[in-house]
DNA sequence: TCCAACAGTAGGAGTACACCAATGATTGGC
DNA sequence: GCCAATCATTGGTGTACTCCTACTGTTGGA
């Protein structure tokens, strides 16, 4: 009875938006159980991936407003997951580093993410998943620069 | 420290969420230029796809709160895109029908949606698009019933 | 005939998100 | 040494969403 109008399901982008939002919501839910939000995961991952960097860089990389990045790092810093210290070379900047606990937390959260992914992708076989990943990656990379700030 | 830093793009679900949200935002933008929102499109499509029906049915089908559906239909009705008349068989219900103008509007909006889709999927070849559509459709159908109300 | 259940409506609450403006500290170029 | 530009931070704004509650009609069964 709750069938979606065929008009909409014929749009690939509709399916993309829906399934994406579903995955996102599921992960957000599990992160919330650990008092985390999606941005926290993204931020930790960015730090692990690109090393210590200034808040400005971090904000730009994640396309977050600098003021929001400050708040995010307050939260992560308060839990000891990141360390903030003034850049001795330029004391305006704050160098953000992932702590040991930060690495550990990131690993945990990524495990959660993998679990969610396993659920969401369960209808697909392993080779199909790789295929999907490849296709999406190409879309993602072409996603390009209409940079409004945005989602984690 | 053998660990390669976990990257977000290695998560298929991350790509899914990102690209989906991108597509969604692009469409929303174009609809906004015509004073429409995504729910309007979904609602019109549902009416076209499943024929005249009560507001309750419509709300359930789209997973919108009934009170919000009332507001949506106010807007669509005010523009002459849907007609609302009491069901003579059960005067509590209101039967919602797509008008001529409603069909026309739906066609226009679907054209917009197709245009957006063409942009978003531009990195893929035609057979790849069909492939992607098939995979997503399977994810979508398995998406299943954890029905919180939600997104258009 | 009465009443519990249901359909639709109006108004508003709560939340999450992206954004902005003002402030203080610091820098580099002149 | 001075000044415009830069970085971080604070506090607050606007806007969508989603949800809830109370109220009006209406129905079908006891």
Automatic annotation (TrEMBL), chains A, B:
Q: Which SUPFAM superfamilies match?
A: Winged helix' DNA-binding domain (SSF46785)
Show where the HTH marR-type domain sits: 9-141
The molecule here is called MarR family transcriptional regulator
Q: Which Pfam families does the record associate with it? A: MarR_2 (PF12802)
The family database entries (InterPro entries) matched by this protein are listed as: HTH_MarR-typ (IPR000835), MarR/SlyA-like (IPR039422), WH-like_DNA-bd_sf (IPR036388), WH_DNA-bd_sf (IPR036390)
């Amino acid at each position: 009875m709750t069938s979606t109008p065929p008009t909409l399901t014929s749009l690939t982008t509709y399916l993309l938006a829906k399934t994406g939002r579903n995955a996102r919501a599921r992960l957000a839910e599990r992160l919330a159980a650990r008092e985390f939000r999606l941005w926290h995961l993204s931020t930790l991952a960015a730090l692990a991936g690109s090393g210590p960097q200034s808040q400005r860089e971090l904000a730009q990389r994640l396309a977050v407003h600098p003021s929001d990045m400050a708040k995010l790092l307050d939260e992560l810093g308060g839990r000891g997951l990141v360390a903030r210290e003034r850049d001795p070379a330029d004391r305006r900047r704050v160098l953000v580093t992932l702590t040991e606990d930060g690495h550990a937390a990131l690993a945990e959260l990524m495990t959660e993410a993998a679990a969610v992914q396993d659920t969401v992708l369960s209808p697909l076989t392993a080779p199909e998943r790789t295929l999907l990943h490849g296709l999406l990656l190409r879309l993602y990379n072409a996603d390009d620069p209409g940079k409004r700030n945005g989602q984690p």
